[in-house]
Amino acid sequence: MAHHNEEQEHHEQYGVLLYYKYATIPDLDELFTFYDSNCNSLGLLGRVRLSSHGINVTVGGKLPSLEKHIAAVKSKSLFQGTDFKLASCHEPSNDKLAQECGFNSLSIRIVKELVTLCSRPLLKSPEISSAGRHLSADEFHSVLQNAGQLQGRGSPSSDTRLVLLDARNLYETRIGKFHSLNVETLNPEIRQYSDLASWIDNNSEQLRGNCVLMYCTGGIRCEMASAYIRAKGAGFENVFQLFGGIQRYLEQFPDGGFFKGKNFVFDHRVSVGSSDAIVLGTCLLCSSSFDDYSSRSRCTYCRMLVLICEICQVCVLGFLHLSGYLIILILHLQACS
C-alpha cells in the first residue's frame, strides 16, 4: 500500500527540466517536429530553442512526463552525453510569474544562436570545440579549496594566479555568488549576456596569463564565453568551467559550499538556495536584506530586474502618484550602478 502511494505521489508531482547540447543538427525541421509532437503529447510547457549548432531546453510538467521526454531525447544519437537537470518543485501558482517566465505555454523556436554572446557582429564566432575544460562540482570545489592548485593533465603551474569569473547578469549576482578567500573574483556586472564579449575585450589584461575559472547557472553561457576567451590566443589557454553550473554544484554541496546566497533560475521557481539561509541581496531603496525577485520589479529604462522589498513596493506605489519620474530615475541609477 505504501509503495502504491509513493508511485501515485510521484505520478502527480511536478518538476522542471533543463538541458542543452551543442551538436551539428542536420535537419532542423525534423527536430522541430519531434519537439512539437513530444512536448505537446506529454503536456510540457516552457521554452525550446533549436539551432543548427544544438538545443537549449527549459520545460516543466509532471515528473513521469519529463522522464519520458528524457528517454525520447536520449534515443537520438545526436544527444548522447547530454546533462539532464531534473528537479521536483511546486507547480506554478502565480499566473503572472508563470507567464513572464514562459511556463504558461510551450514555445519552440528555431534561432540563429542558442545564447547571444555579443550584440555586435563578430568577425569570427568562437568554435565551441575550443571551450574551456569542464570541471565537475567536486573538482571545482577542490580548486577553490586549494586556491588554484589544479591536479592532473592540462593543469596550470603552481605559480599561476587563479581568477574566478562570473558569466551571469548583474541581477543574478546580487542574490548569490561564489566566494573563496585568496581567490580574486571578477564580476562583469553586465545587464545582459550579450554584453559579456565587450567586457572580456575591455578587461582582457585581467585574464591574460591567469587560470580563469568560470561559472554560470547551468553551464551553457560558459561554453561560448570560455571559447571566446581562449580564441584570443597566447596567454588565454587556461580557461576552465563548472560543468552543469551552479545547479550541479548545489546538488553536490547542499550546504552551499563556496556558493553564498541563492541561484537565480529562469523559470517560475525564481531562485534555488542551499540549506544555508544566508541572504546576500538588499532592497534598493531601504537596504534591508531581501533576495526575492518573484514580484518581477523592473527598471523602467533598461528593464533589468531590481530588488524592492514588500514594504518599499507599497511606499513606491504611493510616491509614484506624487513624483513618479524622479522616483523611477533614482531606481534606474541605483539598479544599474
Automatic annotation (TrEMBL):
Q: Residues in domain Rhodanese?
A: 158-258
| Record keyword Transmembrane present | yes
Protein name (record): Rhodanese domain-containing protein
Keywords for the protein's UniProt record, in alphabetical order? Membrane, Transmembrane, Transmembrane helix
For whether the record's keyword set contains Transmembrane, the answer is: yes
Regions crossing the membrane: 304-331
Give one Pfam hit by family name.
Rhodanese_C
